[in-house]
Protein 1
Amino acid sequence: MGKHVLVIEDEPNIIEAISFILSRDGWAVDTHSNGHDAVDVVRAKAPDLVILDVMLPGKSGYDILSELREDARTHDLPVLMLTARGQTKDRELAERIGASRFMTKPFSNAEVLEALRELVPQ
Amino acid sequence: MQGLRQADLAKKAGISASYLNLIEHNRRRIGGKLLLSLADALGVEPSALTEGAEAALIATLGEARAAGEIAATDSEPPEDFAGRFPGWAELLVRRHRRVLELERIVETLTDRLTHDPHLAAALHEVLSTVTAIRSTAGILADTPELEREWRDRFQRNINEDAKRLAESAQTLVSYLDEGGEEETGLAAPQDELDAFLTDAGFHFEALETGGAGEIDGVLQESERLQSAASRALARQYLQRYAEDAAALPLADTLAALPGTGADPAALARRFGVSVAQAMRRIAALPPARGVPAVGMVSCDASGTLVFRKPVEGFALPRFGAACPKWPLFQALSRPLLPIRRLVQQDMRGRDAFLAYAIAEPVSAPDFGHAPLFQAHMLLVPPGPSDQDRDGIDGLGVNCRICPREGCDGRREPSILTDGF
């Protein structure tokens, strides 16, 4: 079985497309689509990597990332942040909080795969 | 004001005692509803209290001074200034209020662009949908042996997303359209002129019959021209319109059309006027039988569009510079040379047009002064004989929304093709 990735994103068709690409690339994919309990889900599923959207219902991706970084268990977990806003200050904020990578929508499938392979060598 | 305590009066007028205190010491402006309620509470005519107007003037002068609009080193107290130069003081106060008003609008607009939750949500929606489409389309394109079930599913998703994208894009556009005009009232002078000309259908019957004498009346009747700048632009436009109408009277021009067609050079020769003048005249004709629906644009020597009469089937850029491939700009680089090309914009729903273009000096020749040129382009629906003349020049609206690939005129990447 390949490495385990958790996709936290609220747009169903993006989830479906990303899941498909990642599965075909050999990843074991889990998905989750709201911010409320995202941190609990990360703890429970213990993935090798998280793809995290910034704009989520219930809780923002930034808040979720902060909580993950405060917890020793998820402190070093690779997190790829996705956002629809590509402004420098968003990127800076994501990096300050501890995002491993930052990607702006719309991205290409190849970009996502490349970023994942860099973050978690297979 | 005897017999009534300050606190009681304030209560009756619905304001705080300390605010009333400021008013009594001429430190706060009084007017409108507050003036009426105070007068009512005191049982006097409002006019008895309007000495307060002067107090307001002085207070605002003080504010302007504090805001740094008047040199702080000027030691003259606002009271003396207002007393000696009431007219100037009034003007200063009006300017000060206008500055505050404009500052507020700028703040609102800036805030709106950066923090408007509605705008942010709408853009997020658009980008999310685009992401889904891009990713799904990527799968369909890059997975040659995709199982039928997946293929159907992804095609359905793309179809759904495309519909959603169209809806959110429309919502976004209508939101931006509404907001821009209603909330700020800050249309550029050129926009006000455009709206004024569009309302009139680019034709002014009063000037056709009454000439330049009717200009004031036309300007007064218009509700579109809100700013002094737009009225000045409109006046300039109408003066030239009146001159054109005198040189090419309406009835004579209409009578000449069957012979000349919409060829501005032929019309110019017939009336002994410049080609640009003939173009303007054709663009100002009222809709009638035998009068083609034409569009026209003019630009100054910097390439900035200074006049635009739209025509269906040929899009004009609302903001920013136009496509450098337009014959209009070719004319600008070859002054006085008449250019005629068959053109069509490379977008869906665009028609072919016969474009006549020429650049002419804007002022009379003068030794020792290089003439300044303006270029004009008239867009006429082509006749059957025009169709195959020299092939059709493909062109765009402006680079941002132009899908043309490998264009040597491209200034910036297109949002339609780039990144996909």
Protein 2
Amino acid sequence: MTTVSAPTMTRRQMLKRVGAVTAGVTVVAAAPMAARAAKQEVRYAMVIDTRRCSGCQACSIACKAEFEVPLGAVRSWVEHIEVGTYPNVERRMLPRLCNQCSEPPCVDVCPTEPKKATYKREEDGIVVVDDGLCIGCAKCLEACPYDARFMNPFKGDPVKTKGNGVADKCDFCLHRISQGVQPSCVNTCQGKARIFGDLNDPTSAVAKLVDEYDTTVLMREKKTKPSVFYIDADYIEAKKDPKADQYFRLDTHRNERSSKRWA
Amino acid sequence: MEHHLMWNWPMIVYLFLAGLGAGALAVSGIVVLWDPAGEFRHRAALVARLGAFIGPLPVIIGTILLIYELGRPFRALNLFTSNFWFMFFNPSPMNWGSWFILFFCVFATVYALTFLPWKALLRGERGERLEARAERMRSPMAVICVPLAIAMAIYTAILLAAIPARPLWHTPVLWLLFTVSAISTGLSAIILVQRFMFRKPGAVRGAIRREDPAFRVSEYYLVSMKVLLIIAELVVIGLFIMFAHMTINSANFAVQVLLPGGELATTFWLGVILVGLLMPAFIEGFYLLRTAVLGHEFEWPYVINVSAPIAILFGGLMLRYVIVVGGQITGPIGI
């Protein structure tokens, strides 16, 4: 009897041990995923009510002044768009900034390790660039479908560096919002077209607006899940329908960037 | 129309040189491993040697170009600040590529050292010992170098193809195009150097001589391999354009830059297709067929002999130029 039970016991022990190891491995493997999937407390977002935008570019100026953005580059800008079919044409304004994507393609391609030079902040979902880590390879500029990034040759060093410098982009005015102040573009907006707040707080203005309106995000098909929502900008989606043969002319109003030219 | 390019000529030249070095090393390694004891390897010994010497140089030059482009060279060390295994958790192909470059440079250099004529360099017993050791190490190093070289060639394309925001790059055909082009340019570089060296009969001591019929046979095999590669590259370019053209969305828009009427159409059709592929294919194909069909000696005028590989190298550079620039000027800017 003992000769039979002894191997049974060992098998049970072994099974137990295997089970424990499997569970442990699963927990270890799943831990980062769980951390990522855990609901982040704050998700900063911006709602842009294009009906209220007059295209005055005050936000572009405020942003440039706030960050001393070098000539030929912008963090935030306003596009003027002519859209429609004659005689029903109209001129629309589309304020732009970094979309602070929930799944940012720029972060995926960043090559530095173990810490990425550009990363999404766990606590509030803002995508930022670490000047000290960025090697200036410009890969994130190519990866961003919104063209929201640029190379800032003045950043990181007090004097102009010889090469590309480091990647730079809108960070929702992190230094302001950490002090409880609105971002500079929101603060300066004459028509109150830009509304900023925490999307996870149901009492905030942005959460209410996103609830109330059918908002549009830019390039939904890229599946980046942006945190910038547009009200009354459905024509952007409509223009992608090949059957809708509508006139569309875009004037980006971005300065012609003159640092490097080719072709 | 003026465009703002973030990835400029250092990037273009780097992609070309990395492909060339990887291709030359892959050809050399494959020749060494093909037939370890047989006649083929003896006949192609010069090809293996030249490929091994050409291999690491362009990659090292290209890497220096890349680091120069960053502006702050020491920032590049941020790519290596953690341990090697961490690379499998970083999806960035550039990070993988930086490790590939590192290992490629190290192993390709060691592999090239095994081809040095140690006996002639160091007289005496020491030279003979080193020569014997180099002979022993050659095949194991080739086993490491061939996969590394192919990984390098593919990585230069994946670097671009992993970017969804640039539809011209974001195709599953690009790696094939760059790999075929890499091997074709690598082989052309080998043939070019070989032809410069054999300008005068018997210029290379110890290797097979120009008068040796084996040399003609080896030339014949090399050139026919190259023509096959050119045909393969034409097919892959056709696939590349067809794939993009058949896609409804942005890839179709992007490929218009290469098609007639596009901004880069002249560079593409003249530089890549005509000069880089069709011209050498016709010239070399003519002499090949003359030998294969009519039974003539495989011999041709020296100018044509040298210009065909140069044209292929030029075509490879133009291909990188067209793809890198074309991808950037057709990226989705705006909404």
